[in-house]
Specification:
This protein is an all-alpha fold. It has one domain. It contains 14 helices and no strands. Helix 6 runs parallel beside helix 8. The protein is globular, with a radius of gyration of 19 Å. The chain starts with a helix and ends in an 8-residue tail after the last helix.
Amino acid sequence: MLSSFFSKSKPINYIAVALYMALLFGIAHYKRGFNVNSSDVFLTVLSFFIYILPMLVLNFVAKKNDLINKGTFTILLYAFLTAMLPRSLISFQVLLSNMLVLMALQNISYIRNEKNIKAKVFNASICIALASLAYFWSIGFLVLVFFGVFFFEPKNYRNWIIPFIGIITVYVFANCITLILYDSFFSLRSHIKPFSFSFQGYLAKDHLFSVGILIICIVFFFSIYLIKFGRKAAKTKPIARIVIMYLILAIGVGVIAPEKSTSELFFITPPLALIGTTYLEMDYHLFAKEINIWVFICLPFILVFI
């Protein structure tokens, strides 16, 4: 049974989820149309790599911080949620930015170990700044770094300054690259994207279906998570609060994104997968859990026919 299968953490679980993600990644690119040339093949392979890698990073962060049990429900939910946003699977910029934000979360979670705190804050800030080069509005996730400092090491004032140093470092690095390649300075003004509160783009049938499922998952999973939050161990509550803030910021990025093509909602999937795991790990009727998992696995394939 699938519930029993994903309640374990074995190599076969990761292989199965990776194959599932590969199938839906392939379908998304097939629907878009694929040109067989060296540059397109290389970019597609690289896109797949940065699509799969966050699954492992997310699972590592979850288990390292005791946010989940020993199963692999989190990566299953991540695969399902990302597959519900096929437009994001063909956006290299969004996939790259999402991976960098998750790497920042990983560094933030290390702050609580009280070892090399300044380096972890700096690394997290660098990751967020690099993510913003790929997708500008991911700069908002810099708030997570400050939350990490607030929860784990707020008394040292240097920790509050380091994120800005990280941003400046990436800006200087970007200028060096553009000077070498284009003989010009990095234009911050042209890089900053406008924001928009127009949601007309979501009215297309496939977009409406994806957004509707995502909203249902957010409301349901988040409600369960808040109910169960009080039972979490005291040492896990700070990182659990950071996950909640992660979700709120990701929703904010989706709301203000200038182009509503559903790819901007991709940032919601990692924190929502962590939050939704609480529901799948609950003790309730085994048959109902089995049905839930089958629905999660099969639902993305409906988008193929829309």
